[in-house]
Amino acid sequence: MTDQQNTAANEEETAPQFSLQRIYVRDLSFEAPKSPAIFRQQWEPSVALDLNTRQKALEADFHEVVLTLSVTVKNGEEVAFIAEVQQAGIFLIKNLDDASMSHTLGAFCPNILFPYARETLDSLVTRGSFPALMLAPVNFDALYAQELQRMQAAGETPTVQ
């Protein structure tokens, strides 16, 4: 019986673990350089989205992942507004091999953070008195796969910080 308990305890200690600890806004920015004149013009927006992720190892098995969404909206040739949010999360991740850890930090965690970042950005834009900004879902697995291909072509290897 004791051997079974020890085996079960050892398996538990080496089993992969993932736990979301906290989600928070790390940084937030909004600029409307042509206000209030922009509100009196015909609204024909064009939206440019820049998306970025980064991760940092914290103490023990904790990791911070930061998803940055930067949106520039132009009305014709004039910038209507620029909004940026850095949505972050602290994750407990244990007992993953390097490839799985890289994928978890590079795709899985940003996928968790994206709905929060999208809602924060939308709220920020509507508080600036602009129409709601509903960003389409993002396939972080595909973006991660593209980045791996780019790194392989350049002779780089993915690293987990």
UniProtKB/TrEMBL annotation:
Localization: Cytoplasm
Gene: secB
GO molecular function, one term: unfolded protein binding
Subunit structure: Homotetramer, a dimer of dimers. One homotetramer interacts with 1 SecA dimer.
Domain of life assignment: Bacteria
Record-stated family: Belongs to the SecB family.
A matching Pfam family: SecB
Protein name: Protein-export protein SecB
Cell membrane in keyword set: no
Function: One of the proteins required for the normal export of preproteins out of the cell cytoplasm. It is a molecular chaperone that binds to a subset of precursor proteins, maintaining them in a translocation-competent state. It also specifically binds to its receptor SecA.
Gene Ontology biological process terms in this record: protein folding; protein tetramerization; protein transport
An example Gene Ontology CC term for this record: cytoplasm
Major subcellular site: cytoplasm
Keyword Chaperone listed: yes
Keyword annotations of the record: Chaperone, Cytoplasm, Protein transport, Translocation, Transport
Entry-linked SUPFAM superfamilies: SecB-like
